[in-house]
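The passage that follows is intended for readers who have already worked through the single-chain material. We present the inputs for a multi-component assembly, then the predicted structure in tokenized form, and finally a short commentary. You are encouraged to pause after the input and sketch how you expect the pieces to fit together before reading on.
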Amino acid sequence: MDGIHDFGGMEGFGPPAVEIDEPVFHHDWERRAFGITMASFVLGVSNGGQFRHSIERMDAEHYLGSRYYEHWLTGVATRLVETGRVTIEELEAGAGGGFPLSRPVASAGVTVPEPGTDVTVGDEVRVRRITTRGHTRCPRYVRGRRGTVVRIDPPSSLPDLEAHGDARRSEPIATVRFDGRELWGEGAERAAVHVDLWLSYLERVT
Amino acid sequence: MDGIHDFGGMEGFGPPAVEIDEPVFHHDWERRAFGITMASFVLGVSNGGQFRHSIERMDAEHYLGSRYYEHWLTGVATRLVETGRVTIEELEAGAGGGFPLSRPVASAGVTVPEPGTDVTVGDEVRVRRITTRGHTRCPRYVRGRRGTVVRIDPPSSLPDLEAHGDARRSEPIATVRFDGRELWGEGAERAAVHVDLWLSYLERVT
Amino acid sequence: MSDDHHHHPRTQSPIEQRVHALEELLVDKGIVTHEMIDEFVARYEDDIGPLNGARVVARAWTDPDYRDRLLADGTAAIAELGYGGPEGDHMIVVENTDEVHNLVVCTLCSCYPWPVLGLPPDWYKSAPYRSRAVREPRALLAEMGCDLPDEVEVRVWDSSAEARYLVLPQRPAGTDALGEDELVALVTRDAMIGVAR
Amino acid sequence: MSDDHHHHPRTQSPIEQRVHALEELLVDKGIVTHEMIDEFVARYEDDIGPLNGARVVARAWTDPDYRDRLLADGTAAIAELGYGGPEGDHMIVVENTDEVHNLVVCTLCSCYPWPVLGLPPDWYKSAPYRSRAVREPRALLAEMGCDLPDEVEVRVWDSSAEARYLVLPQRPAGTDALGEDELVALVTRDAMIGVAR
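Having made your guess, compare it with the prediction:
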């Protein structure tokens, strides 16, 4: 989905706020939200794709205006409701007020790319224009862009499928090197940007 | 610039909040912010591109979390400071507190597309991948996409230039019709989306 | 509009303080006057609104020649009724039919045909409307109470440049006996944006 | 970590109330225990942190064979020192040189090599860092106090899939006399992310 979470290249943000000697957690609630989420994985509440998508489905303004572990809390609570373990009524009663959850998975337009072709290190590739309204790990800023494969990682479960049902497809992951100017135009800084992309996100440039 | 203002197709927003018998202004400060901004145009504080870009340069979280006329107020105040008519110190003294302005124009990467070729109604075109960090009226969701020209409007000043200096280029504007599936993939709703694009944003598909 | 806008109420929100500060500063410097601002506000709060557009639509419903001129050159035909000005210099009128439904949006800011509709409502300027109108117009329209049959073609117009769009809705059935003035009352702002039929 | 997390303090913020409500609800239903949560918190607050990564780096600085193994198979070489686990199953180590500077980011969420660096700092998870690291890494690094000469090549690694990245910084000049344990103290978390040299 083209959500607010897909920050790569987005403008309108200032300098990062760096805190000297920053603690691991800033508030006790962050400790508990972290621990609850970690426990939820052990209990099988979500796989990685499901959990990430539960955060991506947060209201964009809520996402942008809240701290990181509030994202986790919102995602895990959403998954707990969606899997029938708790109800929103129970959550609101306990909180003594509103308990904003993420929005439902899109009812249409959740698509999975066709399997891609095999690639090897050195190949020129172009990233497909993924347009799913569901979960994907293909960032918007590389879609349609050309790059060179520099590494192949072992097969792993395609998130686009994993987040939305029982079907699985295991595919190698290619690390693709993009020239900064290919991504951001001639005025861009000189830099190489590497993105790890499942084969289904790629097509070979012939 | 790829800012938060470029909402087309972005996900993570819910249903629009429709208010029955909505007033033109909800607060008296909205009246004043509107009037100040209108007066500022008469006084030549900004042209259209400069004013729009002054709003686009707002901090993304501020933009998303504030009402529409706060965008105007922030943009016009930013322009008034940038053109030397008022100072941030005067604004903060008057407000008795902070007066958040928009961020400065990008110091690098502000580019203007090369002039495009002429097109006529019925032509197939592809939208260029505009990557400027400055102002543009080429929405992100149509960049790289194919469509058909359905109308040509009279020449008008290219915003990408107008917002950033004294140079001007006047170009016809083509209304391009995009199939929803070209923009959003096979799972998309059946719809035709029309976008008005200066010729420099387009290249003919040969 | 209250007359005491240059008095400083005791408890102002930060945005109220900022707007007030800017207005006072500009007046103190002699850059604007309160009256200039008052005048703009009055014009767009009291004088210009969707009644203008409704008159255009009702005329088009009752005068086939006017309808043809309106579709051929919106700016000129609208000027015949005395309407024009900022955000109305290049008007395009798009016509709904049994087969076609038109919807207007501005994804990049909130461009809107002021001379015929006045200033836009909050939802038109909101992230939900601007993001979804171009991606899932049918779902959006359904949520706004406008259910379109599958066979109706949806045409979305993103006002990204100089043109401003007005939808010419279909004349409701059973209104043959009504005159132009009576028809004016039937034309809604929402229908002229395209979020209602 | 306080022991009274299941008591309800009098004035809680909304997010505190929500977290508290969820924990109590899950405990009441027998889905989790407070102790399970305590254990995860303790592990990542007390046990696992950038000291692990510093030991890996110091070993690589002092043992050329280890450095070669680390660059060839990060996961296995890091496991030699006893580090592994969630977010560390596929470790890639990228080496800084006089000619190359590496920078790690996760634009889509905040993936980070937990076993060697612990949990990420706020700025790593923030919109400014995630948005700008892939678009203007040099400007971002300069703002963070890391000025790179123009001739140094910048390589950004967006952790968008399974691999997690650790930067192997350059050994500081003038440290030939220092042993591995002394070198550990010189290795910063920021250098292992790539926002410092």
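Commentary: Chain A is about 30% helix and 15% strand. Residues 45 and 64 of chain A are 25 Å apart (CA to CA). How closely did your sketch match?
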